[in-house]
Prior knowledge:
Layout: E1 2-7, H1 11-26, E2 30-31, E3 40-45, H2 50-69, E4 74-79, H3 80-84, H4 86-92, E5 98-100, H5 108-117, E6 123-125, E7 147-151, E8 153-154, H6 165-169, E9 173-174, H7 177-189, E10 194-198, H8 207-210, H9 215-222, E11 230-233, H10 243-251, E12 255-260, H11 268-274, H12 280-293, E13 298-305, H13 312-325, E14 329-334, H14 352-376, E15 381-389, E16 395-399, E17 411-414, E18 424-432, E19 437-441
Parallel strand pairs: 1-2, 1-3, 3-4, 4-5, 5-6, 7-10, 10-11, 11-12, 12-13, 13-14, 17-19
Antiparallel strand pairs: 8-9, 15-16, 15-18, 16-17, 18-19
Helix pairs in contact: 9-10, 13-14
Amino acid sequence: MKILFVSLGCDKNLVDTEFMLGTLRDAGHTFTNDETEADVIVINSCCFINDAKEESINTILEMAEYKDKGSCKVLIVTGCLAERYRDEIIVEIPQVDVILGTNSYEEIAKAIEEVRAHTGEYYEVYKPLEGLPNVRSSRSLTTGGHYAHLKIAEGCNKNCTYCIIPHIRGRYRSVSMEELLKQARELAEQGVKELILVAQETTLYGVDLYGEKSLHKLLDALNEIPGIQWIRIMYCYPEEIYEELIQSIKKNKKVCHYLDMPIQHINNELLKRMGRRTTKEELIEKISHLKQEIPDITLRTTLISGFPGETQEMHEELMYFLNEMEFDRLGAFTYSPEEGTPAAEFPCQIDEEVKAEWRDEVMELQEEIIFDKNEEMKGRELWVMIEGKVDAENAYVGRTYRDAPEIDGYVFVNTDETLMTGDFVKVKITGAYEYDLIGEMIV
Length: 443
C-alpha cells in the first residue's frame, strides 16, 4: 500500500510518527507525499491547545475527502486527538477507519491488515496508558538525517491546571537507558550528528525506573557515542534541575550549553493557580545559579499570556522580570482553556484581545533583548551546523549551539566553499538581524 503520513504537533509526536513509519516500512509498505495517489492516509494528531485541535480536525476532514472520492482506501487517526476524542471522531467523521490511542501506535501495520481483510469494518486500539509501546522496527527519520529527537520518556505527573497531557499521555514512564543508547547508536550510524532529548519533562528521567533522577547518567553515556557531536536538552522543569545535571552539562563536551526551561509566568499567585512547583524567588535563584556555573549557557523559556486571574500588574511584573533576566530564547502563547482541565473552570477568564495584547508586548520586548544579545555576538567565533544553501548566493544557513531546529534563529554563513547539510564549520560572526546572525566561514 502507498501511505501518506501527516504528523502534527510537537517533536515528541514526531518521534512516534518516525517509529510508525519504520513499522510500516518493515511491513512492506511504501510512502508518498501526494494525497491523490495514497492508498492509506495517516494523521498523527495533536490537541494540546485549541489551535492545534482545530488544525488536527481540519486535516482529518480534508483527508476524508479522498476517502469519499475512493482514492484512499484506509483513513487512520492516531495521536492525542484520537486518544481524547475517540467517540466524537467515530460519530462525526465516519470516513475514519482506524483510531489508535497514544500508547497503541505499534499496532498500525496490523490495523491496516485488519481493515483490508474486513472491508467496511471499523477498527480501534486503546491500550492502557501504562508502560510503553513495544516497537521492534527502527525509525525512519524525517528531519533530514543530520539531527534527530530522542524521546526519553512518555507522560507527565505534574498535573498543571491548564494542561490535558497527563489525561491523554498517562503518568511519567522513562525509556530504559539501554534502549535509548541502542537508539542513539543506530541514529549515529545513520549519520545523525545532533541528538535532541525530548519528553514532556526531561529532568525527571529515570526516577520511575532507577529510583533517582538519572538524566546526568544518560548524558554521560550519550557523550561517549562516536559520531554524535551535539546533545541538546529540551523541556527541563526548573524545580527539577539538579546539581549533578548541571555538572554533567559542564563536563561533557558534546552536551550543548543550552537549556529549554519552561516557566510559564513568574507571579507567585498565578504560578500557584497554574499548579506550578516554583516561585519567582526560586526561579531567580535557579537562573542565576545556571549562569554562574555555565557562563555561556543559552536559556530558552515559554510563557502563557492571559491565564485566568492575571492582571495588568501581574503582566507588568513579568515584563520587568524578563527585562532583568534577559532570556536568550523565548516563546509566548495566549492561554487556551482546555475542557477537562481545572483552569478552564476558573473565574476571571481573560478576553482574547487582552491575551493577544500581552503576548505581543512580551514578544516585542524579547525581540529587543535578542537583538541586543545578537549585537554582542559580533566578533565571536562559533561552530555552526550547516542546514542548507541560500539559493543563488554563496551563502549557507546554519545553527550554533544556541539554536534548536525549527524554533530558534539561524546563522547565514558567507563562503565560496562547497558545504553539505550536517557539516560543522567554524564561523566568525559579523552581523545581526532581529533573531538571526551573519558570519564568515573561517577556513
